[in-house]
Specification:
single chain, alpha+beta, 5-stranded mixed β-sheet, 4-stranded antiparallel β-sheet
Length: about 425
Amino acid sequence: SSGINAEYGRYTLRQQLQMTRQELSYALYQHDAACRVIARQDKEVTAAREALATLKPQAALAAQQPVAPAPVPVHVAVPAEPARPEPMEVETQLVPIGLSEEVLQQLQQTHVKLTSLRKKRGKEMPEGLPTAQQLKHYTQTSSHPGLHSASLPGILCLDLLPNSKRTVTGGADRNIVVFDKEAEKIVCTLKGHTKKVTNVVAHPNEKTIISASPDTHLRIWDIDGESCKHTLRIHDGPVTGLSLHPTGDYMLSCSADQHWGFSDIGTGKLLCKVADQSVSHGLTCCQFHPDGLIFGTGTSDSLVKIWDFKEQKSAANFPGHSGPISAIAFSENGYYLATSADDEVVKLWDLRKLRNFKTISLDDKYTVRGLTFDNSGHYLAVAGPDVRVYQISKQCDLVVTWDAHTQDSTDVSFGPDVNYVASVSNDRTLKFYSAN
């Protein structure tokens, strides 16, 4: 009898152990599910807070507006405007129409005028430009995380509207955003590209933006109308570079299809399209020289080329990098060219002597994503794992480094007379740096 009782007791314990294990397994499953829900909600709350950070200044500005009594004429309600019809988008034909004598003459006259002005400016530091010591004390003064979508994070390119406080950004979310730095609000969001926006250029004298994307299209936008005036399908591959000619009337584009193109912004017509016959690799970037009769391109096989635009031929080659060329930038005084690739250096070239006069060594695994000179040619900004500024001299000293972004910075730009610096990043933020 005692043996039967002992066996029954063990059986009961085994049953209880099995039930306990089942309950524990179920509890662990519930805990795991709850953790997943909490993590998702935390992510949604973070995205909402970031969006709210951008909306709050707009709400504050709206709340500050006085509410006038109805009888005052200036505040009398008026009928709502009729809905604006959808803008008619024109996709321009691919066939080049050629460079007329009138266009070539315009480019030559611009070249002569700008060359003369550049010589008058000389090499002296412009009045009002901060010294390296002053620039060293610049710190982050604002950060704006809510400009582009949180579902496709990353701001990939940046430009500044020269005569205003507005910035233009292009994102992985396929949108272009015009942001007012002073009012801290979004002016407009331009939609139309079907892939990420990798290049944006703001016209210096008109409310026009040009954008490029791997979707093979270039788009010319009207800011006031918030509409696309022209869609140009010039290239057969991703558009990798974009530059505005100094006249403000034409633009240069390049592509992985090994071609560069020259187009009229006003008409949206392609004037010429040229293939680089000497290489079998795609073009990765391009920029006009400030005088407008030469321009530079980078290739995926580490070569930098200087082109004579009128002859439509290569005028000089700058070898020395390894890996695809990631960025090129001409100094505004026309003397220097900065280049970078996947080789952890920035090379500076003297265009008067056609030689490399300085190689700036960067940190290990430092990938340069953007290069830009200030308008005087005295400072060079580099975007990558951090944002840094060098003073252009024989030594090319590092002036300041900002590591405010939580992911790689993708582009950087100087404000007028370097009164501030702006950068964008894969962390979805636009940041400004200036003196306190």
